[in-house]
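dumping these here so i dont lose them again. two proteins, back to back, each one seq then structure tokens. dont judge the mess
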Amino acid sequence: MHETIAPLNCTTMTEVRAGVDAVDRALVDLLARRFGYMDAAARIKPERDHVRDEARKAQVIDNARAHARAAGIPEAVVCDLWETLVEASIAYEFEAFDRR
């Protein structure tokens, strides 16, 4: 993979797009790892009704909100993304649980 230029050092849209594409690839790799943990959770949890855990969901979203605040990015946007991510993860875990 080519080295990307830091956002503050970009001077062309080609550089910006290359950086965005690199970040997107890294995010997909991280999502694959996260979904791997959903496979593990489905394997470890003894009962299907343990898949949905609203207290844990709230904790995960609160953690993301705190990280967004610390990073100086919009908290509401991150919370919306994490709501979608967590719900997709729960749906995936249900499917993984049912497959075993």
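---- next one ----
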Amino acid sequence: MPVQIVLLILFAALLHASWNALLRGGADRLWSMTVMCLAVAIASAAIAVFLAPPAHASWFYAVLSAVLHVGYNLFLVRSYKVGDLGQTYPISRGSSPVLITLAAALFAGENVTTHAMLGIALVSGGIISLAFNKRRLAVPGLPYALGTGLFIAAYSVTDGIGARLSGAALAYTVWMSALWGVLMPLVYIALRGTRSLFTPRPGFATAFTGGLVSLLAYGIIIYAMAFAPMGAVSALRETSVVFAALIGHWFLSETLTLRKFFACAVIAFGTFLIG
């Protein structure tokens, strides 16, 4: 994998951990997530008008991905309601690389080398180990965290295929993101009503900025998937848990132990094997 792609993915990982920390620290996470999606929709539509639409063959995948992203949003919000960033985030992110690698092999015909597979296994194992506490997996929202991981795997493979069929990864990203950004507010309105969404409240600017950051982070990942194996890109992206552990410690007062440092070292070695 070219070094510039590796650096782009690591930058995206930092951005991803940052917006998840913003979401975890919010008071009303469903509202914050919906405002993030509004920002995604507005920014994506503004960019889309300057781009030619992606190839027709990719539209099915764009719509499917938008629906899967809404499911991911709902599960992520629910998991953060009952779990810490340092627990929920590693499980949801750590469960996805192996699933993505298998799905990419089945549906996209990708071949995975021994080194890459070992690296993906180390990254996944290191990430999941971050969620253990005294040899026990102490996460109240474990089903939601694992469900989030399944959605991540599903939309990642969908977007990897869609980006390759689109002929233009950037156009695919903004059109898919615009669809996703519109669907999530519709779901929120169905659950809570229009007034609840548009009533002014503190935290709007923070959530809106978080949405723009999330769009940039995922756009980088889709771009990378157009030029590198999906499983390897996904595993490198999941190094965001290293950044999440540090952000959780510095800004959310979460504990950062020697065991977590060791898990981060395992992740770093796995990243080296993949790269």
